[in-house]
Amino acid sequence: METKIITELTRENLQLVAHALRHGDVVAIPTETVYGLGANGLDADAMDKIYAAKGRPSDNPLILHVPNAESIKPLVKEIPNTAKALIKAFWPGPLTITLPKSDLVPDRATGGLNRVALRCPNHAVCRDILELAGVPIAAPSANISGRPSPTSAQAVYDDMNGRIPYIVDAGICTIGVESTVVEVRDDGVTILRPGGITKEMLEQVVDNVSYDPFLSSQNEAPKAPGMKYKHYAPDAPMRAFIGNPKDVAEAFNNVIHEQENKRGAFLVSQETYELLKDSVHGEFQVYGHSGDAVALAHDFYKTLHHFNECDVDYILAEGVQNTGLGVAVMNRMEKACAGHIIYV
Ligand code: AMP
Ligand code: MG
274 C-alpha to center of ligand 2: Å? Predict the structure, then answer.
């Protein structure tokens, strides 16, 4: 199959894509978080094609994307007041809510669970496509399972060339990490996956916000099945350090010394870069000021893709503290590092 990248976002082209989606094709679409691999969320056969294209484990359910809040009514049994408040505050945006599903939603969308995950993206092109398609669109990240999520059409192409007919190219994703996934009940919400909407932001709107215990202990099974899988791994082994730039630079220097003849790649803040640039050779990517979780989120997957292309032997990254958007970024970084995160 030839994969065509659509760069001219005319009404005609978006209609072509929406038609393909409605009729069972898989198409990569842009969102504000990462690129998604879309298919008709009411059509089990179409969703099977997503699992095949990604090599996604079949128990890992999909998020259904809708153009507006109104569209979720036929997909769920009921909408508790907590859900209404969250939707009012954060949609369109990077918040996915799970609610008890109606019979209209095929088990293929939910991996057999009785809840369905729903999101209205804050991306004009994406919402136009959703409107035109007229059906909810199931869309996991448009990467091969286990690899870094794509934040550009080119990154989608690298993984999906030959597997899907179209990629809609709307440039680089603004947020850069996936949505927050929350289970919503009458009495509160549980964060199953940290993302663009932080715990602090949720607490401004609803009472009783907690993290799924799996996120801190990993002893129990996660409530979001996808969280148990290894994710986001770059080709080269990666380690991360968190601390002030001086200590991070010293920790980097120690590893670089041990690695001698190996080729390293370094994802760092501006401040740490200043401390290393004169003495260290290797591939540098600078994301912004020390501690800037928003800048790190924006550049994180893009950088992992870039390091894969550079064919490096090892990767060192400078992380940020676990607060605000930092929780989401460090959750991804920890997986990319297979747990090798060191506070210095
Ligand atoms: P992705 O599609 O790659 O952004 O991943 C979607 C995430 O949402 C995965 O971690 C899924 O396990 C999770 N998810 C989707 N549907 C549900 C659901 N009904 N209940 C719990 N988690 C879900
Ligand atoms: Mg994913």
Answer: 34
**Residue linked to tokens 């199959």:** 1
User: What separation in Å is there between the alpha carbon of 148 and the centre of ligand 1?
Assistant: 16
Cα-to-centroid distance, 185 and ligand 2 (Å): 24
- This prediction has a pTM of 0.94
Closest CA to 267 of 242, 230, 232, 231: 242
3-state secondary structure of 158: helix
* Contact partners, residue 199, CB within 8 Å, separation at least 6: 191, 209, 211, 327
284 - beta bridge partners?
A: 266
- Amino acid at position 185, single letter: R
Each residue of 150-179: pLDDT tens digit? 999 999 999 999 999 999 999 999 999 999
Question: What are φ and ψ of residue 122, in 5° steps?
Answer: -95, 70
Pocket test for ligand 1, best of 47, 182, 192 (most atoms within 8 A of CB): 192
